[in-house]
Amino acid sequence: MEQTLVLIKPDALQRGLSGTIIARLESRGLKLVALKLMQVGSDLALQHYGEHAEKSFFKGLVKFITSSPIIAMVLEGNEAVAIVRSSMGETNPKNADPGTIRGDFALDMGRNLIHGSDSIDSARKEIALFFADTEILNYQRGTDPWITEL
Ligand code: IDP
Ligand code: MG
User: Fold this and answer.
1) Residue among 91, 95, 115, 122 whose CB has most ligand 1 atoms within 8 A, to mutate
2) Closest-lying ligand to the alpha carbon of 53?
3) Structure letter (DSSP) for residue 40
4) Residue 72: which of 118, 12, 121 has the closest Cα?
5) How far is the CA of 19 from the centre of ligand 1 (A)?
């Protein structure tokens, strides 16, 4: 089953929105298979956001993600990568549809609350950056057949 990395960014924790964000993804049917509260250090931030190293906003992005704790989690489900991206909404909250997390709770590109992997390949790499294999659990929920047609 497909897995994706989600980060609840510092702004979301500071604003008390982590429970709301987890609830939205969990109630969509995605299964939580790993979760931790953590402080991102600069090494991890540079690795995670390395693709943006040349961008003008990179320095601010690294400063922001290391500024206060985050919640990292792995979510599992059919097409989990695309499902999370659609629940997140567009990167710029101005363009994010109402009903999405960014569209309902964010205003600013640099304070857009949530990260979700953008492809299966980046999900695999990002999950390995944030979690050891032993931290990712494999379990069944009684509701699984009511969420996914097997
Ligand atoms: P994504 O989070 O929707 O995948 P990316 O393009 O991967 O968006 O950018 C990573 C993060 O960098 C964004 O979530 C946002 O916080 C920040 N970011 C992207 N573009 C800008 C910008 O133009 N100004 C400020 N921050 C930006
Ligand atoms: Mg991205």
Assistant:
1) 91
2) 1
3) P
4) 12
5) 22
Dihedral over alpha carbons 12, 18, 22, 24 (to 10 degrees) = -70
For residue 69, is pLDDT > 80? yes
Q: Which amino acid is at 103?
A: G
Residue 31 CB-density burial (10 A; 0-12 exposed, 13-18 middle, 19+ buried): buried
Confidence label for 150 from pLDDT (cuts 50, 70 and 90): confident
Average pLDDT (61-90) is 98
pTM strictly above 0.85:
yes
Other CB atoms within 10 Å distance of the CB of residue 35: 16
Q: Which of 57, 97, 121 to mutate to test the pocket of ligand 1 (most atoms within 8 A of CB)?
A: 57
Q: What is the DSSP letter of 58?
A: H
Q: What is the mean pLDDT of residues 90-106?
A: 98
Based on its alpha-carbon atoms, the radius of gyration of the chain, rounded to whole angstroms, reads 15
